Each structure stands twice: as structure tokens, then as C-alpha cells.
Amino acid sequence: MTAVDTQIDRRWDQFHTWGPYGLLGISVVPALATADPHAPLAKWYTGWALLCAAVVLQLWWHSTRPGRPDRRRTPSPAGTVYYVVRWALAFTLTWINPFFAFYAAAGYMDADETIPGRRWQRLGLLASAVTVAGAQAGGMPFASAVQWAVFAALLIANSGLQMVVAHLTEQETHRARERNATIAELERTNTALQQALDENAALHAQLLVQAREAGVADERRRLAAEIHDTIAQGLTGIIAQLQVVANAPDLTVARTHLARASDLARHSLGEARRSVHNLAPVALENDGLPEALKKTVAEWGERTGVRAEFTVTGTAEPLHDEIAATLLRVAQEALSNASRHAGATRVGVTLSYLGDEVILDIRDDGVGFAPDAVRTRPRTRTGGFGLDGMRARAERVAGALTVESAPGQGTALSAHVPLIRHE
Description:
Mean pLDDT: 82
Low-confidence stretches: 67-72, 376-384
Shape: rod-shaped
Strand order of the largest sheet: 1-2-3-5-4
Helix content: 55-70%
Order of helices and strands: HHHHHHHHHEHEEHHEE
Oligomer: single chain
Number of strands: 5
Distance between the termini: 61 Å
Number of helices: 12
């Protein structure tokens, strides 16, 4: 309830509290002015006695039912007694002098607040209308049929007016209740909405923290994969070349492998620097993905002595740096695994452009393995990222990695990634 509504209710309460006193006072003045000074003393005494009784009744009622500004009176049996006694006093006073009809009109104001039940409320209003109409017809008792006819017409008019006013008042009360219910519901909704906004703000802050932590973890995994796919593989190649040098039969062969080890060391150093700065692999710095894969496969075959072939199908298109880097890293890891574990004599790498996706296939004729056993085997201290690393790289760019292998039947890896063109 707003401050304006509270003020209006306070004014209505004051009107219902002091209204009957005011109407009684208004009735007394013209009644005394028009009273017959030669009337019997009994009539005067009766009038004054009834007037005092009316004042005492009002004092009693307002002392027992004071009312409050924030709560309207409610119908009750005591209120019914008060209404009936007041009507009887007003009717008798109006019989003595018609000007007391002002006091009888007080019944129009509070029938709905004193009498329980709509039917009895209407009966109370009709009784007040009888008193008022009798005074308007010239006062009671009636001396002629004309007065009775006028009384009937006035009673109908007063009752009809009361019904219209009562109906409008009832509608207004109903609308006020609906409005208050709507306001209360809106307040509850606003409170719930504010709580939801507060919860969303807290959730948003929590998500930001989680996203930041996930970003840090993802960056760590990316750097670890970069180091594994570049520096670790380069060091592995260097070690292999140095082992050949240690067993070289002559100086020429030793120098050849030392040169290869030196090239691998320079290459790994460049990859390390670029991994720190999150740049594309060295092989992609000046070449597209097909050229970079062709050189990588050729260098790997020369270094390992394994027959390696590279094929491109479809129309080659410039790919987004992240897509190209992912496919190159998958190829490098697959070739590294083939040289270390497969014991293959032939490896084939195919890059296929298929409209909205790019597929990289790496096949070898090595010893193969059971993918389920590898998936459940824990990583060793010397183990690399292997299949998990390749699969994570593909999934990071909304792709997928599939593996087909069996003991003694070679291995086939297939990386599917979306074809996102270079911006």
C-alpha cells in the first residue's frame, strides 16, 4: 500500500468516525429553528432524550470500535446492533421533526461496514431510505393519500439511487482489491527478479573465474603439446643422429648425421621460440599446409629411411592458421609414433579437401596395436601425448580423430576438422 492509499484510508476513517456527529448536528439546527414552541412538554422531553441517546450511542460505538487508519471496520453482530439502534433513534427523531432525516442518512455510509451479509446490508439501506423518504414526503405520519404516493415515489428513487451507488462502490472496491493484489504480485515478482539478477551476477562472476582458470589450464596443455611436438621430437631426432655418429664407420657418414643433428637443433630452437609466442609452426611460416606437410613427410622419410608418400586430393585452399597448425602437429606426432613404435616400412599421408571439412589420413604397415588397450593404459614418465594429444588438438578446433589398428595389421589415423578459410 502506497503513502497516498494510506492517506486516503485515513480520511475515509475520519469521515466514518465523525460523519454521524456532523449529520446529527446539522439535523439539530434546523429542527430547533422550525420547532413549535407551543408543542407539549412531553414531545420536547422526548426529543431531547432521544438526541442525548443518539450522542451516547455514538460515543459508545466509537469507544468500543475505534477503527484504525490502516484497517477499515469489518461487519459484526455488535455493528448490527449499533446500526439498528441508531436507525430506531433516527426514525423516531424524524417522526418528531423531518429535519432529523440528515441523521438518518448516516445509514447510507456504513451499512457495509457494520452489518454482515449482503442481504441484511440491503435491508438496512432500505430501512434508512424509508426514514429519509418519509421526511422528504413532508414528515410522518402521513395525512393523505397524496403523501403516501409521494412517499412511495421517493422511496423508489432513494432505493434506486442507493442500489446504483452500492453497485458502483462494490465495483470500485473489487477493482481496488484486484489492483492491490496486482501490486503485491508485482512486488513479489520484482523481488524474485532482483534475487535472480543477483544470483546471475554471482554466477557470472563464478563463470568468469572458471573460464579464466580453464584458459590457464588450456594454455598450459597447449604449451605442453607444443613442446612435445617440437622440442621433444627434435631432441629425439638429435639423439638418434648422434647415436648413428657414434657408430659411424667413417668420417663422411659421421659428418652427414652431425649436419642433420645440427639442423634438427636449429629447427627445435625456432619452434621453441614460436611456441612461447603462440605463433604458427616454422613449417607454416612461409608455406601453406600442403607444402609444409610434403616437406615434413619427405624429411621424416629421409631421416628414418622409411618409404613415405604424401598426396593431396581436392582443391587446396588457404586454411585458418589454427586449423593448419593442428593438422601439421597431428601429422608430426603420428609420424613420430610410427618411427618409434610401428616398425613400419611404408607410410602414406593424404590431405583431402572435401568442401566443408579437411581430412588428414596417416597410414602405415607397421606392427599395429589394440586401441582399447592403449586407451586404458596409463601414461608413463617417458611417454608422450600420443593419441590423447592428437585427439585433444582436433577437438580444440571442433574436429575429431579416429584410429583404426590391430596387432600385425598396421595403423590408420584420420583427423577430421572443419574447413575454415584463412581470414
